[in-house]
Design goal:
The structure is a single chain. This protein is mainly α. Helices cover about 75% and strands about 10% of the residues. A hairpin with a 5-residue loop joins strand 2 and strand 3. The protein is globular, with a radius of gyration of 17 Å.
Length: about 160
Amino acid sequence: MEKFIELVNEAKKAFNVADHTTYVTYHLVKDPKLISMILENLYLSLYNAMEAILYYDRLYKRISPLPEGFGLRYTIFKNKCAPRYNITKQEVNLILELKELIEEHKKSSIELVKKDKLVILSHNYKKQTMHIDKIKKYLIQAKPFILKLNYILNKNFQENDIR
């Protein structure tokens, strides 16, 4: 159970960093390079939330042993865990979308700052543009997922207090 609590706390911490950086730090500094850091924290938050729920369900033997690798774990989470906790398809898909965006950013050959946007060009010159308003939409989409995770944690503590 300790690992579950640790993953929940890491997810909440990363979400809070992404949220604070978006709504406070970015408006003070106005540096579009912060966008990539915000994306990484938001992804880390959602990834840790997914891992926490996978761990929780594995702990209570609701799912079989977990394979290594993101793809298979994501599929198990999407098909078995998410419906159990009313996690929407939009929230589940956001994890994959952010992962792909971050991987594209890491592989990118060129990164440009254009006005208040971060422009990422891949090796085949596919263009991705990130703007702070898009980040805010991601945060709004992610928040219910983090709240559901917190609810699972609190519910677990209440059940253990009763016993």
